[in-house]
Amino acid sequence: MKVSALDHRNAKEVAELMHRIKPDWWPSAADAYGQLTDLSETIRTIGWVLEDDSGRPVGWALFRELKGYLTLELECSGYDDHGVFKLEHKLKDLLDTAVAYAGAQGFTALRNGMSSVGFNIDGKPLEDIPEAMRSLSTERVDYHWMLDYGFRVVGIQPNVYRNNCHLILLVKEL
Predict the structure, then answer these.
(1) Are residues 22 and 93 in the same domain?
(2) Residue 69 sits in the same domain as residue 104
(3) Which element (helix H / strand E) includes 70?
(4) In whole angstroms, what is the distance from residue 172 CA to residue 110 CA?
(5) Cα 93 to Cα 50: distance, rounded to the nearest angstrom
(6) What is the C-alpha separation between 40 and 66, in angstroms, rounded?
(7) C-alpha atoms less than 13 angstroms from C-alpha of 141 in its C-beta half-sphere
(8) In terms of residue numbers, what domain contains 131?
């Protein structure tokens, strides 16, 4: 056996293999081929802009549709609160729009991640992730707003941003 690059020369054959051995995941070879060759089949970017009364953008939220996971994931967002970057309640209308959109698409979750900066785990190695999740604490307004909005912590991925700066994973079930 040998490993070869998956590319335009073999994608159709691989798609046929995928469909043949797992038709409940790929009802047709064309479905599998689309996943292999067209990123928009599995991940698509969508976003919304919040505008002031004059039509000037004051906030945004960019998401990734993770179709295979029935999830809409927040990629980045922000709000200009009189020159101050914010990540909390000022984004409610954008998140409400995203939740409505996700529901209409049949998605089951809205996912977000935030850095551990300002949390009790920041700057420390994570030896026991379940314990770190149980004892997680911060004064960050955006984190508490997300919890109030219905998100809950579902995991921590260590060292994502740099050594000992972790990713806190949050999900809101729809």
Answers:
(1) no
(2) yes
(3) none
(4) 5
(5) 8
(6) 10
(7) 7
(8) 43-173
